[in-house]
Recover the amino acids of this structure.
């Protein structure tokens, strides 16, 4: 059924009160106002089902190295921006896969530009930290420092730390970096939600949220300052939500709904994502398991006892996905009436053929980021060899009856949902002439579903939104073309005229 809508939409108290379909324009009637958008199309509000709101806002203010094409340029940008927290120079977003050769950088690369001040630069995926020698010195990391559980200090042949810290090893340095102030966090949230609103998003599933940030979201929501609805999945790797006493909340624009865990790391910082078989470009490793099955089960049980209705577990490698499915199956058997609990596997990037149907039996939702596929295709080919046929399996998920929701993982990728919709439908990575594993492409309506009704089902909000229908929330994205039928190469040129969130109109032109 097409979801693109033209005609009148009457909005009363945040809900759609009446519809009068007519071709040619979108007309909103709200609070006695009549606003007409000629030649426009209305869609159910677009949702980003996996993102990091504070990360995007901070990245806009602190050094943002996403897409920078060389190590030298990264260093130059950091040198000229010198964004600091306390004495530390911080930035994020570098990606050595874009450099030639695509080799990880080292502390020595930073030392000549920054001999005295500590520098900590986070990789684009947030799973690796590139630091200089001064930072290693402050954190007392040397040849004899052991790798912490769930992390790695990369070392040269003579055993010295290279300046790259993976996953939990990042904390060895991060504990010395002053956190941003709560004022900085508030500004970051406002910057990020406004950017997202202009890109056509009406709702964000915010992942791995720090407990101390939750009251800021709530206050901004109560004061009408959030331009998108925010649903929070709170940090839970070390039971942070429980220690902080966070419980689920209900609210119109901000709700605390779930807990976020990590089973493994990322594919880019090789050794992160946990694979069934070793990495094709490094047979000495199969990756890192950050939480074992028993611990995942224990965390979920505690979260359910605390009243949360959704658990999101990050799993990228096929082995990590399997461990999470094992854990979900155990939860489903211990809680036979847990159908309304949303168990999500964030990323679900590499899925062994044996495990596809287990998503359905374990009641697991696949929360994917289509833009990761095109951005990472070249790197994934090196890491995975011919296992790439098991990677980014969107069509396979739908064919197996798996619920699919989509997001961007911003600031890891752009927050623009059009890029994700295009990646779903075209699947052509930069530098490729044709679609990569074209069988896994989605139709336009399946792609849009993953950004609308699929995302709402994944958050148990589909009884209130995800369609343009009388009685549902007035969450609407108004654009200049029919995203269901326009040509593939016109998707990303789409302009967003306006968004409506809970009946409030935001004009973007
Ligand atoms: Zn993420």
């Amino acid at each position: 059924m097409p979801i693109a809508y033209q005609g009148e939409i009457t909005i009363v108290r945040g809900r759609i009160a009446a519809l009068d379909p007519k071709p040619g324009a979108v007309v909103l009637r709200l609070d006695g106002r009549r606003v007409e958008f000629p030649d426009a199309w209305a869609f159910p509000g677009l949702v980003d089902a996996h993102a990091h709101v504070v990360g995007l806002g901070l990245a806009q203010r602190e050094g943002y190295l996403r897409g920078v094409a060389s190590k030298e340029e990264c260093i130059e940008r950091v040198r000229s921006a010198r964004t600091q927290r306390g004495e530390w120079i911080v930035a994020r977003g570098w990606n050595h896969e874009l450099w030639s050769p695509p080799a990880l950088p080292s502390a020595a690369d930073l030392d000549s530009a920054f001999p005295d001040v500590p520098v900590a630069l986070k990789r684009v995926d947030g799973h690796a930290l590139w630091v200089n020698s001064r930072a290693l010195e402050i954190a007392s990391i040397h040849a004899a420092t052991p790798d912490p559980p769930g992390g790695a200090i990369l070392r040269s042949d003579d055993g010295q730390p290279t300046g790259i810290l993976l996953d939990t090893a990042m904390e060895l340095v991060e504990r010395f970096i002053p956190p941003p102030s709560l004022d900085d966090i508030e500004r970051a949230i406002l910057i990020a939600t406004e950017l997202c609103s202009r890109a056509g998003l009406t709702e964000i599933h915010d992942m791995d949220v720090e407990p101390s940030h939750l009251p800021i979201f709530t206050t901004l929501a109560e004061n009408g300052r959030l331009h998108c609805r925010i649903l929070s999945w709170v940090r839970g790797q070390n039971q942070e939500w429980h220690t902080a006493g966070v419980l689920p909340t209900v609210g119109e624009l901000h709700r605390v709904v779930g807990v976020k865990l990590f089973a493994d790391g990322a594919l880019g910082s090789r050794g992160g994502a946990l694979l069934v078989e070793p990495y094709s470009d490094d047979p000495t490793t199969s990756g890192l398991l950050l939480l074992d099955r028993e611990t995942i089960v224990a965390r979920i049980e505690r979260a359910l006892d605390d009243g949360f209705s959704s658990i999101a577990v990050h799993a990228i490698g096929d082995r990590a996905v399997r461990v999470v499915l094992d854990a979900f199956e155990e939860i489903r058997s211990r809680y036979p009436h847990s159908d309304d609990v949303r168990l999500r596997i964030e990323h679900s990037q590499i899925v062994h053929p044996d495990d596809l149907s287990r998503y359905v039996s374990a009641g697991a939702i696949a929360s994917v980021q289509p833009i990761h596929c095109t951005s990472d295709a070249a790197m994934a080919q090196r890491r995975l060899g011919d296992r790439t046929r098991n990677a980014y399996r969107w069509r396979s998920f739908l064919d197996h009856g798996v619920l699919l929701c989509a997001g961007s993982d911003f600031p890891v990728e752009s927050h623009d949902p059009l890029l994700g919709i295009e990646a779903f439908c075209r699947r052509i990575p930069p530098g490729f002439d044709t679609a990569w594993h074209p069988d896994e492409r989605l139709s336009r309506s399946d792609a849009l579903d993953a950004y609308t009704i699929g995302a709402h089902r994944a958050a148990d909000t589909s009884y209130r939104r995800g369609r343009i229908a009388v009685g549902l929330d007035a969450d609407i994205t108004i654009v200049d073309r029919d995203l269901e039928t326009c040509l593939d190469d016109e998707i990303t040129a789409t302009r967003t005229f306006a968004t409506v969130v809970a009946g409030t109109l935001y004009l973007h032109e």
